[in-house]
Specification:
Blueprint lengths: L5 H8 L1 E3 L21 E3 L17 E3 L2 E3 L5 E5 L10 E5 L7 E2 L1 H13 L3 E6 L11 H18 L1 H4 L6 E6 L1 H11 L22 E4 L16 E6 L4 H17 L3 E6 L20 H11 L5
Parallel strand pairs: 1-12, 6-8, 6-9, 9-10, 10-11, 11-12
Antiparallel strand pairs: 2-5, 3-4, 4-7, 5-8
Helix pairs in contact: 3-5
């Protein structure tokens, strides 16, 4: 496709919905985990390469968490009468230096669980803290392991192991992008039974992900739901629109929502209820229905 045709095509393909300008109040002052919400450690004996630091406490600063050396996820399950069988590992953003676990984690997970999606908020190892972790090594390993853990315990959590997706916001979206490209069907001879399970996601949910150049789908790539703000950085807003065309080119189903008057980091914020970018969870569920994940 010639470059000069992109503008006209994108004008037809990208959904742009007007909203009020963002005037966000201050962020929550602390991390709030609903009572009774379980946290599951991904490697009981410590993550590979991080065993010596697995007992170090995580640090909380406002609504962010850092100093993660023992990766885990927090489990949000729908009521049995609402469960769809779909599971989603959801990675908060934070530039790979910290994790915004409220508006890009707990808030979104509670809304998705209410809509029938079992959601697992990932706390992955980060590049900050002097540990030498890299997002495309340890971060990717944590996302892949989270997918394996959910599949290996799918029956316990009411999830169909063929309906497990990877999603994330900003830097967390980069982990979801990567695991959709770099995954494996499982290692049949692994001593750890979890490692015998596939790490390939069945779908992607990419909310203003960074590094959209990573989105180089093939005909075997999982379908993708993508959302971003019109006023976000060009590498995210324009980059995601261009990535949509790459999905189209290889014949992989994808859906893109580009919200007008919206910048980076909208996540799920109760104070913005009624603005169109807060409807992405509803649109994701509709996408999963149209994809056959939810019947």
């Amino acid at each position: 496709m010639k470059a000069r045709n992109y503008t006209a095509i994108l004008a037809m393909l990208v959904i742009t919905v007007p909203v009020f300008a963002q005037n966000a109040p201050p962020q929550p002052s602390k991390v709030v985990v609903p009572p009774g919400t379980p946290n599951v450690i991904l490697w009981p004996n410590g993550a590979p390469g991080s065993e010596a630091r697995k007992n170090e406490p995580e640090r909380i600063n406002g609504e962010t968490i850092d100093n993660v050396h023992n990766p885990s996820f927090t489990v949000f399950l729908p009521a049995k009468g609402k469960a769809t069988g779909v599971g989603l590992i959801l990675a908060p953003g934070g530039g790979h230096n910290n994790l915004y676990v409220m508006h890009e984690g707990m808030n979104a997970a509670q809304v998705l669980a209410e809509k029938g999606i079992a959601t697992f908020v990932l706390k992955n190892r980060l590049q900050s803290g002097g540990a030498g972790y890299k997002f495309d090594v340890e971060g990717l390993a944590d996302m892949a392991r989270a997918i394996r853990v959910v599949r290996s315990r799918a029956n316990e959590w009411g999830v169909d192991p063929k309906k497990v997706g990877a999603g994330g916001f900003s830097a967390g979206g980069e982990l979801a992008e990567l695991v959709a490209i770099r995954n494996d069907p499982g290692k049949p001879d692994a001593a750890d039974p979890v490692e015998r399970v596939s790490s390939r996601p069945d779908f992607q949910a990419l909310i203003y992900p960074g590094k959209s150049q990573l989105l180089q789908p093939t005909a075997e790539s999982p379908p993708a739901f993508m959302a971003a703000g019109y006023d976000d950085r060009p590498d995210i807003s324009i980059g995601l629109a261009e990535a949509y065309l790459r999905f189209k080119k290889v014949g992989v189903q994808a859906e893109l929502h580009m919200y007008a008057h919206t910048g980076h980091g909208f996540g799920i914020r109760p104070e913005r209820a009624g603005q169109s970018h807060q409807e992405w969870t509803t649109q994701l569920v509709s996408f999963l229905k149209q994809s056959g994940m939810i019947k």
